[in-house]
């Protein structure tokens, strides 16, 4: 079964990840992202991560992660470090998302990441 959800998701947070996880239990998850124009019309603001800006989005994810770890170094377990090292050559960015930052390791990638929940994002 295919499951389609759509939304802004411009500033991805743990609530979005929990929603995606729940939706994915019902089938293959496809995520539709609102265009810059639609988000501006509905939310009366410009997008942070624009339509053509996946590389920048990955960079911001990585920088946010690095800032989190600088403030809270104990958030990173050896398992998280190992997962990051395993995928850092293929992932554009990564971030810990969830309550207190300790819920999920989210990877931004243009190609599928093995052994991970796959979310296909289309604009």
Could you give a quick summary of the protein structure above?
The protein is of the alpha/beta class and 123 residues long.
Task: Quickly list its features.
alpha/beta, three-stranded parallel β-sheet, 4 helices, 123 residues, two-stranded antiparallel sheet
Question: How would you describe this structure to a colleague?
Answer:
This protein is of the alpha/beta class and 123 residues long. It has one domain. Helix content is 38%, strand content 20%. The protein is built from four helices and five strands, in the order βαβαααβββ. Strands 1-2-5 form a three-stranded parallel sheet. It has a two-stranded antiparallel ribbon with strand order 3-4. The radius of gyration is 15 Å and the shape is globular.
Strand order of the largest sheet: 1-2-5
Q: What is the N-to-C succession of helices and strands?
A: EHEHHHEEE
Structural class label? alpha/beta
Which oligomerization state do the chains in this entry correspond to? single chain
